Amino acid sequence: xxxxxxxxxxxxxxxxxxxxxxxxxxxxxxxxxxxxxxxxxxxxxxxxxxxxxxxxxxxxxxxxxxxxxxxxxxxxxxxxxxxxxxxxxxxxxxxxxxxxxxxxxxxxxxxxxxxxxxxxxxxxxxxxxxxxxxxxxxxxxxxxxxxxxxxxxxxxxxxxxxxxxxxxxxxxxxxxxxxxxxxxxxxxxxxxxxxxxxxxxxxxxxxxxxxxxxxxxxxxxxxxxxxxxxxxxxxxxxxxxxxxxxxxxxxxxxxxxxxxxxxxxxxxxxxxxxxxxxxxxxxxxxxxxxxxxxxxxxxxxxxxxxxxxxxxxxxxxxxxxxxxxxxxxxxxxxxxxxxxxxxxxxxxxxxxxxxxxxxxxxxxxxxxxxxxxxxxxxxxxxxxxxxxxxxxxxxxxxxxxxxxxxxxxxxxxxxx
Length: 416
Ligand SMILES: [Zn+2]
What we know:
Bound molecules: zinc ion
CATH topology: TIM Barrel
CATH superfamily: Glycoside hydrolase/deacetylase
Structural class: alpha/beta
Largest sheet: 5 strands, parallel
Strand content: 15-25%
Shape: globular
Number of helices: 12
CATH architecture: Alpha-Beta Barrel
């Protein structure tokens, strides 16, 4: 990757084709601590009556730029009479539920409202906490009980003061490090991070890598409301490894980015002022698209009183989980999705394009691995080593989906 020119996909997925636009007024309101003096009910209303976004770089709620480019590459391969292989750690699509815990109310009431719904549907989710929050003190027992129920605890940075993007590089690095250290002292070995206010900066991924985080979930695929990030997004509904800039060029980081692919509750409720029914229908529209392309439906909902953590709105969460579960996707916490994605990404393979032999090598055993083979010949593929799940026509050519029940380090597959 180093020294190489960036592909169009790299450029868009890493948001290098756009600028983050943080306002000066906001910067000083935050740095001078004026924000805390405004109650949330007003805070959530003021500042979002802005006029229509001029020239957003992403379409909302579905942006197809990266998807289209990847399809074009596949199409090109197949038309050049080559097999094209796509390995995925799930056979249909996957779903992941995450929550950012931002207010005192969340600890008192909001968490238990959402938790009850998840328990009913047997969903394990990821909960991001702020160790030095001004709003609350971390309740260690509550976090332990979430873990005991199978949920994941992760970091929502050190503080939630909205200053992250405005700090010096040194201070940002410190916040990422200290957050992990505090969790560790409390007995939580955390693996993931979500930037406060989704303040992803160009140096964030490097700091996460330095502190051995496994995953990050700070990039929406498309976002038209977050202050400073309106019209931005990584444009993909698949996990990816963000690039890190070094002197000579870019290199792939070790961080698995899990994009927020379903618009967060806060955006839809406050800036967009959607009714509860409209929120549900927008979520359904997005989930259907993600199912269609086989991606990751990652939700960010807040247990806050003014978001979805109340009895007037929590039914939307209940309904969308029911809707998703009916489709039978792979459902996991961020760590589950990130680990499976990483293992799949690390598979080395050799594809014999004449005989259609596949040799795969993996560092670890991976269960239930799916792979698509795009054949240039319109032929029917069969194998004794794996189960054919589906065969259909795609780009006027044959596409077959196979399931490997368990990939044990090394495997040879022959297709005929
Ligand atoms: Zn937050």
